[in-house]
Amino acid sequence: MFALMIVVYHAVNSGLATFPILSQGLPSFVMQSTEAGVELFFGISGIVIVGALRRAENPYIFAAERATRILPVLWATIGVIIALSALTGYEGRHVPDILTIVENLLALPPLGPGQLIHPAAWSLSYEMLFYSLCAVAWVFRRRLGLWFIVLIAPVAAALLYFHIRAVLMPAGMGVAWLLAQRPRLARYALTPGLGLVVFLMAWEYLCVVNGHDLLHVTGIYLLQGHQAITFIVAVTGAILMFSGILIGQGVFCRLMGSRPFQFLGTVSYSLYLWHPIVMSIIKHAMYVLHVPAHAGPLSQLVLFALTLPASLVVALISQNLLEKRVTVWLRGILEPERKRRHLVAPPQTHPTPAGEPVS
Predict the structure, then answer these.
(1) Would you list the domain boundaries of the chain?
(2) 302-345 pLDDT per residue, tens
(3) Largest Cα–Cα distance in the chain?
(4) Model-level pTM?
(5) Whose CA is closest to 19, among 291, 307, 278, 302?
């Protein structure tokens, strides 16, 4: 659903015509709030990371699993963008220099140097930094015990101060860890759908009052006055939503458990990275064929209707080829000893402990 929200957001901000009623007031506010699908993705990453840290045998295994999960699809989409730029020069794009390409393949921009090649890949820079911090925290915890918090907490706080859009990463971690330790707390998360609505409306308000540029807003501007209250309301709504989702509570979770949304969840990462490319190609074709001139205010809807099915097909191929096969192949190279150990290990017959993730 979060990936689908981002597809909607890019269609709404494609520059194509739409009905006036949808481009102003409350309808526009609601449509623009779909940008927060990225923040919600961050929250999911925070939840997933708790299970990944439990499963991994050491920081190297953890880092290898995260890298092989993120990088294959990123590399493929960057390669396609570079190829299209070289062949067409569409929208003034050009082939970047080698250093910029390497920086993007490592998911460094925009937090690192270099110009961003893939317009949607900025969030992966946040993801990789988050994973790196988790790996470092793991090392310090084993060496220093609970004293590692004294070293890691200030670093995490400083990063969140300058990059407030990543706030749902630690929030997601906290939800996953706390519910595993105190499952009875789940009784307070009765309406995750309402929590989602509260988060989206409060977060979009923060975006509006900060000029739709939370990427460059620091804590000193956001965490004061009425903005601080709105921020707390937004994060609280997200926490209630994630808590309800984890325990499968309510109508919202039954909807998320349906086959269409389970399919979307399976291909969500590939959908996130491939749909801007597909949308760009379709939008260019629409201009060549003069579709906007004939469709008028239906142009955005036409773009979305053409982009979504095509993106889902590409995402499904990517998920099966890159996220599964290439990821398994890379992990076999990076973790050969672990692979051999798993091949000779006897099957486990004991039940999975309560609260432990099943890999």
Answers:
(1) 2-342
(2) 999 999 999 999 999 999 999 999 988 888 888 765 544 443 34
(3) 67
(4) 0.86
(5) 302
